[in-house]
Amino acid sequence: MNDFLDRFFKALLFGVITIAGLVMAAVFLVSAAIAVGLFYVIAKVRGKPFVAREYWKSTSTRARQTHTEFSEKFKKPGNFSRKPDITDVEIREIK
Fold first, then answer.
1. Residues with Cβ within 8 Å of residue 49, at least 6 apart in sequence
2. Per-domain residue ranges for the chain?
């Protein structure tokens, strides 16, 4: 009887966690659909067509440009060389 109750409560907990995960996934999908709908409405108000491919292209172009600027800003000099990687470490116990 004890084993039955233990298994029952474990299964019940698993079910509750599973349903909570499904609810979270559904909330995410609904919020994503609302966001895409808002993009569409804003594009219509501005008089421009909303095409996901164009939005993705502009976002990735902006990200690529930011990455290039960041890389140029923190670029190491041409004669920069790294120290060889450490391959052996000795550990001593201190008492």
1. 43
2. 2-73
* C-alpha dist (Å) from residue 59 to 24, 49, 52, 54, 66: 27, 16, 10, 9, 11
* DSSP reduced 3-state for 1: coil
Tokens 């474990």 sit on residue = 10
**pTM: predicted TM-score of the whole model, two decimal places:** 0.50
Q: Which pLDDT tens digits describe the chain residue by residue (95 residues)?
A: 789 999 999 999 999 999 999 999 999 999 999 998 998 899 889 988 877 787 788 889 888 888 888 877 777 666 666 666 767 777 888 87
